[in-house]
Amino acid sequence: MDLSKEKKINLEIDIAGLRLKNPVMTASGTFGYGEEYSEFLDLSRLGAIVVKGLSVAPRQGNPTPRVIETPAGMLNAIGLQNIGVKAFVEEKLPFLKKFKTPVIANFFGDSIDEYVQAAEELSSAEGVHALEMNISCPNKQAGWIVFGTDPKIMEQAVTAVRKAIKLPLIVKLSPNVTNVGFMAKVAENSGADAVSLINTITGMVVDIKKRKPALANVTGGLSGPAIRPVAVRMVWEVYKAVKIPIIGMGGIMDANDALEFLIAGAKAVAVGTANFVNPTATIEIIEGLERFLKEEGLSDINEIIGSLKIGS
Amino acid sequence: MSNKYFKADVTDNISLNKRFKLLSLSPLSTVKIPEPGQFYMLQAGDTYDPLLKRPFSIFGYEDNTLRFLYRIRGKGTSCLSNLKGGDVINVIGPLGNSYPEPHGDFIAVAGGIGIASLLHLLEKFKSKAYLFYGARNKQELVMLNEAKTFSKELFIATDDGSEGKKGLITDSLSDFLNPSRITHYALPIYACGPTPMLKELSKVVADKDIKCYVSLEEHMACGVGACLGCVVKTVSSEQEAGSSNKNESQLLTAHHSLFTYKRVCKEGPVFDIEDIVWSDGVLE
Q1: Chain B, 27-56: which have a CB under 8 Å from a chain A CB?
Q2: What is the pTM of this model?
Q3: With an 8 Å Cβ cutoff, are A273 and B51 in contact?
Q4: What percent of chain A has pLDDT above 90?
Q5: Closest C-alpha among A211, A204, A256 to residue A232
Q6: Residue from the list A41, A60, A61 with its beta carbon closest to the beta carbon of B257
Q7: pLDDT grade for A143, boundaries at 50, 70 and 90
Q8: Which of A71, A74, A81 minimises the CB distance to B221?
Q9: Which residue, A55, A138, A230, A237, has fewest beta-carbon neighbours within 10 Å?
């Protein structure tokens, strides 16, 4: 076969003005600060690196056990352990700058003020290309209601962060709501440039002999292939509800899984739990997407995005 | 890229008795040579259930063959026990730190399957160790020939007295460290076993000037330091450095942060016993 006649495959996509060489990124909390996986893969090949969630002050996280395996998945309650924005910028960011891959900093807070402060400090650091706002944490000023489950609180928080920063703002939606499309709409109206979903689904495992929860935190977030159909359904609902780009995630293990999300309307995907099982999962997915396009006689990943056909 | 993620042929998977097996893997590519105390994440099944790889200490390495001694306990080890010669599995490793190299004689304390990581150390430093090996009963003691061959002297204890001395292995160690045999005080201790045993050990060495290294176990998802699932409470270095000039109220205010979580997979699995917070039951 004459290789020169082979179609050039385009995997490049655009998320809120941020150009990614392919639509595959890492899911926050599953890829550390990038360093942990740098000996397994070339970080320059990734569409984007989304780092472990950051808060203004460092956090110790929850007591152990923090993780338990579940059927085709895992439940975790790490408790947002992180080194804090300042240490991230000083100690971790210089390493990530060496790669030709945009860095998306995931951040969170206990209050709107903390969200704003974290966002401001991160956006002023050279080498951070976009921010992903984790709204699946409780608000200490409003009875510990989770930001992302109350439209009013979420609107206030997203609006405040939006005002404070110029960088692209991605709001990471919680699946633990009745109408995820509505919540996505609230994020869009509050100034989000993109939404990412799904965060983990709240779950619980009981140790029947000890009559105790398996996790010290009692409940945790479920991830892995077990949650994928839920995630695909939610991406599709959000796709119908908003105009801003969607980053889809939830149990993506291989390229076929990633394609389900892209077809349902996601412009990019994030790989999470799969990294634990296979440290090179992201690279295999990028290669798999390219192969799929070739097999389908397509030349651009954008032809796949939102190509879901309903009805006959 | 590193060669720490690779495919390996199962060369054999031998039953030692009802519960214990020895798995031999032959990597299909060139891999790093492991140090005693390091571990590998092994693919246990070929479906998404079990999903995660399982951590196992290296038991032996020679002629490009990795050997793992394991006890069938849950879903992961059950799946692992079904592997047959010719099967190919994915492996991540070697991971974590290793036992610091002993200079001269040392003491090794193994509880149950904890013998796996220590025998590799003993094999490397033959006839240098006083080995204390404890288990629930006779059936739970494996590799006794190797334990005898590689050690300088072997002490055995079982909970039911079916082999060796009846009682805790840490009690046997305590007798050995009797002040009348003062020379034993200078020997470093290397230990691997269930948490209650390590906790007992921390009491045995508490008031003595003995260097003691323990290999810890925790639930693990990634094995490479990313998920932060396998952390253990360690004594905060800030507290160590500044405790002398802090007054009581300052200590009380700072109480919530008198420990630091460290990753068993990355900063461990081998820790100095003095660095671990044993007191509040977190490890139980």
Answers
A1: 48-53
A2: 0.93
A3: yes
A4: 93
A5: A256
A6: A60
A7: confident
A8: A74
A9: A138
Contact (CB<8Å) A36/B224: yes
Please indicate whether residue A137 is annotated as part of the active site. yes
Measured CA to CA, the distance from residue B42 to residue B57 in angstroms comes to: 10
Give the SS3 label for residue B244.
Answer: helix
State ipTM: 0.93
Return d(Cα B161, Cα B179) in angstroms, integer.
Answer: 26
* C-alpha distance from B149 to closest chain A C-alpha (Å): 38
| Residue A239 Cα distances to A64, A232, A258, A261, angstroms | 38, 10, 16, 10
Report the distance separating Cα B83 and Cα B56, nearest Å.
15
What does residue A305 show for φ and ψ, rounded to 5 degrees? Answer: -60, 125
Inter-chain residue contact A275 with B222, CB threshold 8 Å:
yes
B44 to chain A, minimum CA–CA distance in Å?
A: 11
Least confident range of A21-30, A282-291, B133-142, B252-261 = B252-261
The model's pLDDT over A77-88, given as tens digits with 9 standing for 90+, comes to 999 999 999 999
Answer yes or no: is pLDDT of B179 > 90.
Answer: no
pLDDT at res. B184 = 65
Decide if A32 and B226 are in contact by the 8 Å CB cutoff: yes
Nearest CA to A275 out of A70, A108, A74 is that of A74
Q: What is the pLDDT of residue B185?
A: 67
CB-CB neighbors (< 8 A) of B278 in chain A: none
CB contact, 8 Å: A60 with chain B? yes
Among candidate residues A137, A165, A194, A238, the one labeled active-site is A137
Q: Average pLDDT for residues B139-162, to the nearest whole number?
A: 96
* Contact flag A64-B228 (C-beta cutoff 8 Å): no
Q: How far is B26 from chain A (nearest CA, A)?
A: 19
SS (HEC) of chain A = CCHHHCCCCECCEEECCEEECCCEEECCCCCCCCHHHCCCCCHHHCCEEEEEEECCCCECCCCCCCEEEECCEEEECCCCCECCHHHHHHHHHHHHCCCCCCEEEEECCCCHHHHHHHHHHHHCCCCCCEEEEECCCEECCCCCEEHHHCHHHHHHHHHHHHHHCCCCEEEECCCCCCCHHHHHHHHHHCCCCEEEECCCEEEECEECCCCEECCCCCEEEEECHHHHHHHHHHHHHHHHHCCCCEEEECCCCCHHHHHHHHHHCCCEEEECHHHHHCCCHHHHHHHHHHHHHHHCCCCEHHHCCCCCCCCC
Confidence of residue B280 (pLDDT cuts 50, 70, 90): low
Over the stretch A185-223, which tens digit does the pLDDT of each residue have?
999 999 999 999 999 999 999 999 999 999 999 999 999
Interface contacts (A, B; CB < 8 Å): 105
What is the biggest distance separating any 2 CA atoms in chain A, rounded to whole angstroms? 66
Q: How many CB atoms are closer than 10 A to CB A245?
A: 23
Q: A19 pairs with which residues across the strands?
A: A14
Could you give phi then psi for residue A136, rounded to 5 degrees? -95, 35
